[in-house]
Write a structure and sequence with these properties.
Shape of chain A: globular
Number of helices of chain A: 13
Bound molecules: flavin-adenine dinucleotide
Strand content of chain B: 5-15%
Oligomer: heterodimer
CATH architecture of the largest domain in chain B: Up-down Bundle
Distance between the termini of chain A: 20 Å
CATH superfamily of the largest domain in chain B: Butyryl-CoA Dehydrogenase, subunit A, domain 3
CATH class of the largest domain in chain B: Mainly Alpha
Number of domains of chain A: 3
Structural class of chain A: alpha+beta
CATH class of the largest domain in chain A: Mainly Alpha
CATH architecture of the largest domain in chain A: Up-down Bundle
CATH topology of the largest domain in chain A: Butyryl-CoA Dehydrogenase, subunit A, domain 3
Structural class of chain B: alpha+beta
Largest sheet of chain B: 4 strands, mixed
Number of strands of chain A: 10
């Protein structure tokens, strides 16, 4: 047993941190919020050149085939600087869906292009009013805008689609004419598609509304049970998002600690007041605990463990909670300064809120966690020690 | 990163399992009424002795001191497997968890002879630190030790001393120089509890039981060879003991998360199983997340130890967060019975007694060995580097405070 990353992975992480602190300044992130919805950050091209996109994509499909642990450490560093790039949508969602469920031909066609940055991918499942708590329900069956797949074409509206303003391809959830859930792959280039930018909590996410009108679509190859596939892709993505969240939370904590060490009131450093110190101690504790669950997720992802659904939900929920707490309270401890556009706190606050909503709310993940835990309790062999022991 | 056993670890786990199957069949949990009774202590000594004979009493320490000479991962494996069985009260945890580590670190070879004896279950220890006016502010102890030739004469009063009524040995800090600032005038001793002049008075706790005591020290005579560490360096030794206390697997007395989940499948609320209620599911999910995180945080700390590094003050997180979780979860579980939850008997539910014990134990554990606020100060100041609060006692001689 070993509950930490290894030296090589720390090397990648430190390298990524150095690169990002140099190339992803907070001023750049701030400016990007106000830029045109279709504009891609120049950071993207640099990330492409570093090869990060292909870290977990198998070599035979143009990736580096390193693995998920390497991807996790990169995710943490991207989260730490709230990098304004479509990395998560393209890699955690689109590439993952294709790696896991694409046909051989689809893998050959799309993965090398995603790994090389030639294509940006995303996943589109959310529809207006189409969420349910028990599972991610796909399409709004009665809604007139629900996306329907009919004989090679889709029609309907998806919103919001993360990085939908930038993406070239998307994995889309739909219902076929029999009412069954399907996953399809679409290229976002035809004139049977309309994109509309959406005003969003975190404008750097380039959320879009995609309206399809008999738009060409191919069934995602090997996917027999689309609901199960979608759950799996979301579980895997949730772990990677959790690393981004933990990275962001840790940065919020560091910024707040630095600030309260400097700032004085009543001739004392603000950080010497217990009310402040204890809040930060709690923030630290929550961040470390969330990190522990994220590591559990990383291991489950990398090893293909059966505990993956449990680990994903645990990682996801605690990462969301810790990032929210750190972003809110970190801003608060900066006083009036924290409330300004010029100080970085709001960049984290907005990213935290966005990530908290992205692959399902905490309510929805809580439900998944309980359902999975109850199911595994039926089989004593499969109950993880942390659940079974007092 | 590998949360599963290596081949060697899997072998060791198998060994432990077979050993526990062969030797652990008679194990039973100690009920609160049996605590500190002769019969229970005798039973627990036997179990400890069995473990020691197999090397399991301290997996990591060398064989010459009664350990197994193994590693931290093996220690974790033994712990995981042992916790699957009913749990007798661990009368040896104060000794093994808090007293022995500082002997191992600072002790003479003669003092280290106490280590194998303790691991074998022959010696029970208590911690004579707190006093009526020295709890959180531990360095304010007034019990004094005066040098007389090769001996020290110690007088004073200790309080909240868990297990003093049965302990064979105690660790004690006393003031040896009141002219120095308070942290610097303390010395640390290993005390034979049968010495004349020691009297122990039980204190009745909120549960009605008496686990902790007042201990009066009336001019007890202690040989200088019982001193651990240098004269006036007792604070450093005591800090070593307290750090060990904050990380060791806590004797939380809390039913497992799984048993609470099972309970929620049995209890009925408004004509449906509690677990079918959305509010219950949401609440328990949050508890699951926290429990999962705490267990994996503990695992990460193990990896730090396994790499031969020392744990920092961040290990305090574990006690801080797990006590709060247990306090909340035990209360919530009682609420699944609605008004019947106020009745602690098997007719309500066989788990009820355990839940109530957990509920009554949690507030004590939040105070003992570093109250919540103190743990947060430690994390804030040592881990995050925040400035300490202004203090009124800094640099002043103890006698002038
Ligand atoms: C079940 C149990 C078992 C124990 N076993 C032992 C034992 O075996 N050996 C032993 O030596 N001691 C033992 N103790 C004693 C324990 O270590 C002390 O009770 C503890 O250190 C608190 O000291 P106090 O009771 O004097 O509280 P005080 O020092 O008076 O503090 C009271 C409360 O005030 C708050 N507080 C105090 N100072 C601060 C501060 N600076 N900042 C913020 N908040 C503060 C905290 O909330 C604290 O709980 C035990 C206690 C309990 C409850």
């Amino acid at each position: 047993m070993n509950f930490d990353f290894d030296e090589d992975q720390y090397f990648i992480k430190n390298d990524a941190r150095r690169f990002l602190s140099d190339r992803c300044s907070m001023d750049m992130v701030r400016t990007y919020l106000d830029s045109d919805a279709t504009e891609i950050s120049p950071l993207w091209q640099e990330i492409v050149e570093l090869g990060w996109l292909g870290v977990a994509i198998p070599e035979e499909y143009g990736g580096l085939g390193m693995g998920y642990l390497e991807l996790c450490v990169i995710a943490e560093e991207l989260g730490r600087v709230v990098a304004p790039v479509p990395f998560s949508s393209s890699i955690y969602l689109a590439a993952e869906a294709i790696v896991q469920y694409g046909s051989e031909e689809q893998k050959q066609q799309y993965l090398p292009a995603i790994a090389s940055g030639e294509l940006i991918g995303t996943m589109a499942w959310s529809e207006k009013g189409a969420w349910s708590e028990s599972s991610v329900s796909l399409s709004n069956q009665d809604g007139s805008d629900a996306v329907v797949f009919d004989n090679g074409f889709i029609t309907g509206v998806k919103r919001p689609v993360s990085h939908g303003m930038l993406a070239d391809i998307a994995v889309v959830t739909a219902r076929n004419t029999e009412g069954e859930t399907v996953l399809v792959l679409v290229e976002l280039s035809e004139n049977t598609l309309q994109r509309k930018p959406l005003i969003s909590v975190d404008p750097s996410q380039r959320n879009a509304q995609l309206s399809f009108d008999r738009h060409p679509a191919l069934l995602l190859g090997k996917c027999e049970d689309a609901q199960e596939a979608l759950d799996n892709v979301l579980n895997r993505a949730a772990i990677l998002y959790a690393f981004e969240q933990v990275g962001g939370a840790q940065r919020c904590q560091e910024l707040a600690v630095e600030y309260v060490k400097e700032r004085k009131t009543f001739s004392r450093q603000v950080g010497s007041y217990q009310a402040v110190k204890h809040k930060l101690a709690r923030m630290y504790a929550q961040n470390e605990l969330a990190r522990s669950n994220a590591y559990y997720g990383a291991w489950a992802l990398a090893s293909g463990s059966e505990e993956l659904p449990l680990a994903a939900a645990a990682a996801r929920i605690s990462a969301t909670n810790c990032f929210e707490f750190a972003a809110r309270e970190g801003l608060h401890l900066h006083g009036g300064m924290g409330y300004t556009w010029e100080v970085d706190c709001h960049l984290y606050l907005k990213r935290s809120r966005d990530l908290a909503l992205k692959v399902g709310s905490s309510r929805c993940w809580n439900e998944k966690l309980i359902a999975t835990a109850l199911a595994c309790m039926n089989d004593t062999e499969k109950v993880p020690t942390w659940l079974a022991n007092s | 990163m590998d949360f599963s056993d290596t081949q060697e670890e899997a072998c060791f786990r198998q060994e432990v399992r077979s050993w526990l199957q062969a030797n652990g069949t008679t194990l039973r949990s100690t009920s609160p009424d049996e605590l500190y009774t002769e019969a229970d202590i005798a039973f627990c000594r036997q179990w400890q002795k069995k473990k020691a004979e197999a090397g399991y009493a301290h997996i990591v320490w060398p064989k010459e001191y009664g350990g197994m000479g193994g590693n931290w991962m093996q220690a974790a494996i033994f712990d995981q497997e042992e916790r699957r069985l009913p749990r007798p009260f661990n009368y040896f945890s104060v000794g093994i968890g808090q007293c022995l580590p500082s002997i191992m670190e600072f002790g003479s070879e003669e003092q280290k002879q106490l280590i194998p004896q303790t691991l074998r279950g022959d010696l029970i220890w208590c911690q004579l630190f707190s006093e009526p006016n020295a709890g959180v502010d531990l360095a304010a102890v007034r019990s004094k030790a005066v040098r007389e030739g090769d001996n020290w004469v110690i007088s004073g009063q200790k309080v909240w001393t868990s297990g003093a009524q049965v302990a064979d040995y105690g660790i004690l800090i006393a003031r040896t120089d009141p002219d120095l600032p308070k942290h610097r005038g303390l010395t640390y001793f290993l005390i034979d509890m049968t010495l004349p002049g020691i009297s122990v008075q039980p204190i009745k706790q909120i549960s009605g039981h008496s686990e902790f005591n007042e201990v009066f020290l009336d001019a007890i005579v202690v040989a200088d060879s019982c001193r651990l560490g240098e004269v006036n360096q007792g604070w450093q030794v005591a800090m070593h003991a307290l750090t060990a206390e904050r990380f060791k697997r806590l004797n939380t007395r809390m039913p497992s998360m799984m048993s609470v989940m099972q309970l929620s499948q049995e209890c009925e609320l408004d004509g449906e199983k509690a677990i079918e209620k959305d509010s219950v599911r949401q609440y328990l999910a949050n508890c699951l997340v926290n429990k999962c995180a705490q267990e994996h945080f503990m695992s990460r700390m193990l990896t730090v130890l396994a790499q031969g590094k020392d744990l920092g003050s961040e290990a305090s997180i574990l006690k801080l967060m797990s006590c709060q979780l247990n306090q909340e979860l035990s209360a919530y579980a009682m609420e699944m019975f609605e008004e019947s939850g106020a009745v602690v008997d098997a007719e309500t539910h066989p788990l009820m007694q355990e839940l109530f014990d957990a509920y009554l134990w949690a507030p004590g554990l939040r105070i003992a060995g570093g109250a919540d606020e103190i743990l947060m100060n430690i994390i804030g100041e040592r881990t995050l580097g925040l400035p300490s609060e202004p203090r009124l006692d800094k640099g002043k001689a103890f006698k002038d405070l």
